[in-house]
Design a protein that fits this description.
- The chain is α/β, with parallel strands linked by helices.
- It contains eight helices and seven strands, in the order E-H-H-E-H-E-H-E-H-E-E-E-H-H-H.
- A seven-stranded mixed beta sheet has the order 4-3-2-1-5-6-7.
- The longest helix is centred in the middle third of the chain and has 10 residues.
Amino acid sequence: MEPITVIRSRTVVMPFDDIDTDQIVPARFLTTTTRDGLGEAAFADWRYDAQGAPKPDFVLNDESAQDCQVLVAGKNFGCGSSREHAPWALLDYGFRAVISTEIADIFRSNSLKNGLLPVVVDADTHRWLIDNPGAKVEVDLEALELRLPDGRNITFDIDRFSRYCLLNGIDQLGFLLQQEDRISAFEKSRPWQP
C-alpha cells in the first residue's frame, strides 16, 4: 500500500445515495484474488453499454474525471454485501479517498484495511462538494482535515490504528510484522512451551 499523508486532487462527484458494492464492482468481476485491473470494472454497469463501449454521459468517462483521486458520493456509500473487491476497484481506478455524509460500516472497514481513505463529512460540507464537482481539495490524514478551496478546513475522524496504518502504508499484517522483534522477545521470556 502507498502511504497517505495529504491527498491533493480534484473531485469526481456521484451524488447518488445508496451506491452498493455490487454497483461499485459487479459480482461477475469477483473471480480474481488480486486488485490488478479491477479499475476497469469499477462501476462497469454504469460506465459501459452492452457492447462494452464507454457511455459518454457517465462521469468517469468524462475527460474531467481523469487523474482525480477523490470521489464524492451520496449518503450510505458502499452499502450491500461485504467485498474487498469494491475498495480494490476504486483504488485500481485511481481513487485514494471517498467522501460522503455516510459510509457503510463494512465498506469503511474494508477500505481502511486496503488503503482507501473513507471521509465522513457534515451535510453542509457535502452539499458544497456535490454542488462544486471538480473542486480542488486537500485531504490531510495527518491533521485529520479536509481543506476546501473556499478556505474552510473541515475535521474528520479516523481511528488511531487505521490512521497509523494508512500513514505508514501498511495493513494489519504489515503492522504485526513490524512487531516481530517484540513478539520474539516476549515468546523467549515465557517459561512454558507449547
